[in-house]
Design goal:
alpha/beta; Aconitase, domain 4; 7-stranded mixed β-sheet; 21 helices; 25 strands; 31% helix; globular
């Protein structure tokens, strides 16, 4: 039986000649990375458990979430990592280098067919070059640094075929926003994706990176492209050797094959709050903006900056609008300087920062304030992720054109005179600011295999890690302190930490814990003594983090709640081994999916360590 790309890579890094979906295997990891976000906790786990580094030459730090080192807490965390790196002879790609996943590609630290992990939830961006990349929590990464391997469940693979011609002017960002519009956040949950088509073969490296970077927002494990000649040349030059081609076998078995009409793809924009809430740009044209951001691991590449320069050349950013531009890496920054792009940006009135993640990390370039409307090339616009305002997602071309116009528009529809804020605009903005301010003022035993607890019925889908544990608390390393911030960014549950009682059980919807790789979104529940979390499905990284931390999580079928007539505040009993669940109010019984053998072993061990 033939194998898909991910099955081949995992088999090549395991003891098996071939692997199948659902199989749990140990795999070796070629490249092991921790960032300034998550890195200090990796160090903490290594030192607390007396572990050694398996192979320093395969182990790296990348500082990209706070490239200026301007926040004292981040600066402290970065220095913790530097000292550890010196002691163990680990290479540090410091604050002047740029986004870690892009660094791995630029320097040939990964290659087609390689495996890599990082504390970055967008490590699956490496699928752009047919490498296996996964974001994992700090406990996972610490264990990998010590052993060189980890356990992984082989996911099913789906194939997407883009048929027909690529519409003129359609950017890579538009392509992935169309895919999000087609599949949402649950269709691809826990799956690997392979994308094919005659036009797909022509995609540049930068375009592949843009599309692969938003596999996380689709809840996919990873999105792969088969490498073309450009990709192989890139890595063979950096590695100084030939690379064995990696591709799916002709008889590979896919869970499903989707054929999409590429010619019908449109320029798209994501509405504030949800990356997958995408609409044709015509639906939001003329929406006035306060700021614009170009960068992130999705759209900070040199091809993106060239497009922006073409739009901005000879033009000025609209009055009352702030345009912020952040290249993805220092190499891209230097190339933009050499090509004269930086001069164009500055003459247009843009702010240009040094390379890094920027808008995704609290306190960095790209944040916005209450009532502020931003159009961004980022990959996420979850509530509160980039600040307290509203964030629309779009392509670099649309963001640049909108910055000049003063409202959302396309390159072919930039007005000769930009929109100037009126008294009414300022009044509306002030009202929005006050509304946000009022809302924000309101926000401020071991291992039993059977538990009883009070139910919190939070029937929402796509509760992401920013809603669970907001990024403004990421510098906190005291687990006990993390608990008081759980759900304070989830509307309606801002006071959860004050009301929850030890042993309480949360029942929620689909894709719980989507988003970033942050371990705090798990550890906070443990600090509060939450007995278990039941969901219809979990974000892939969150599921690993919870299992490795011995936080009981279980999945259930959506019919269960009706069958048991479970209401908020009921007391239920759950058996982790048998999966039996009982509503103690009415005696009704049902089944949830019990612990797997691996989950039970880790749970009884009190965690991965």
């Amino acid at each position: 039986m033939g194998m898909t790309i991910i099955e081949k890579i995992l088999a090549n890094h395991s003891k098996f000649d071939e692997v199948k979906p659902g199989q749990i295997i140990d795999i070796t990891i070629d490249t092991r990375v921790a960032r300034d976000f998550g890195g200090p906790n990796v160090v903490k786990h290594i030192e607390e458990h007396g572990l050694t580094i398996d192979d320093p030459k395969k182990t790296f730090f990348t500082f990209d979430t706070n490239p200026t080192g301007s926040d004292p807490k981040y600066a402290t965390n970065q220095q913790i990592c530097r000292k550890f790196a010196r002691k163990h002879r680990i290479r540090v790609y410091d604050i002047n280098n740029g986004i870690g996943t892009h660094t791995l590609i630029e320097f040939g630290l990964v290659w087609p067919g390689a495996t890599a992990v990082s504390t970055d939830s967008h490590a699956n961006i490496l699928g752009a070059v047919a490498a296996f990349g996964q974001g994992m929590g700090d406990k996972d990464v610490a264990a990998i640094w010590a052993t060189g391997k980890t356990w992984f469940k082989v996911p099913p693979t789906v194939k997407i075929i883009l048929k027909g011609k690529r519409p003129e002017g359609l950017t890579a960002k538009d392509i992935v926003l169309n895919l999000l519009n087609e599949f949402g956040t649950t269709t691809m949950l826990g799956k690997a994706i392979e994308v094919y088509g005659d036009e797909v073969e022509k995609f540049t490296l930068d375009e592949r990176i843009t599309i692969a970077s938003m596999a996380t927002e689709m809840s996919a494990i990873i999105l792969f492209f088969e490498p073309n000649e450009e990709i192989y040349r890139h890595f063979e030059m950096r590695l100084g050797r030939k690379i064995d081609p990696i591709f799916a076998d002709p008889d590979a078995k896919y869970e499903k094959v989707y054929e999409l009409d590429f010619s019908k793809f449109k320029q798209m924009v994501s509405l504030p709050g949800k990356p997958h809430a995408t609409v044709n740009i015509v639906e939001v044209k003329k929406k006035k903006i306060d700021s614009a951001f170009i960068g992130s691991c999705t759209n900070g590449r040199i091809e993106d900056l060239r497009v922006v320069a073409r739009v901005l050349k000879g033009r000025k950013v609209a009055p009352g609008v702030v345009l912020k531009i952040v290249p993805s890496t220092d190499r891209v920054w230097q190339q933009a300087l050499d090509e004269g792009l930086i001069k164009i940006f500055k003459e247009a009135g843009a702010l240009v920062s040094n390379a890094g993640c920027a808008g995704c990390a609290a306190g960095q370039v790209g944040m916005n304030g209450p009532g502020e409307v931003t159009i961004s090339t980022g990959n996420r616009n979850f509530p509160g992720k980039q600040g307290k305002g509203e964030v629309y997602l779009a392509s670099p071309a649309v963001v640049a054109a909108s910055a000049v116009a003063g409202y959302i528009t396309t390159v072919d529809d930039i007005p000769e005179e930009p929109a100037v804020p009126t008294e009414e605009d300022l009044k509306i903005k002030q009202e929005r600011t006050e509304q946000h301010k009022k809302r924000n003022e309101q926000i401020e035993k071991q291992t039993p295999t059977e538990i009883e607890g009070r139910v919190w019925l939070i029937l929402k889908d796509d509760i992401d890690t920013d809603m669970i544990y907001h990024n403004r608390y990421l510098t906190i390393t005291d687990v006990n302190e993390m608990g008081k911030y759980i759900f304070d960014n989830l509307e309606g549950y801002e006071d959860f930490a004050k009301k929850v009682q030890p042993g309480d059980i949360i029942i929620t919807g689909k894709n719980f814990g989507s988003g970033s790789s942050r371990q705090q979104a798990v550890d906070g529940f443990k600090a509060l003594g939450v007995g278990a979390i039941l969901a219809q499905s979990f974000g892939a990284i969150y599921e690993r983090n919870a299992i490795n931390s011995a936080l009981p999580i279980l999945t259930y079928d959506e019919k269960l709640l009706k069958e048991l007539d479970i209401k908020d505040g009921d007391r239920i009993r759950v058996n982790f081994i048998t999966g039996e669940i009982v509503n103690l109010r009415n005696g009704k019984k049902g089944k949830v999916n019990p612990f797997s053998e691996v989950q039970l072993e880790i749970y009884k061990n009190g965690g991965l360590f």
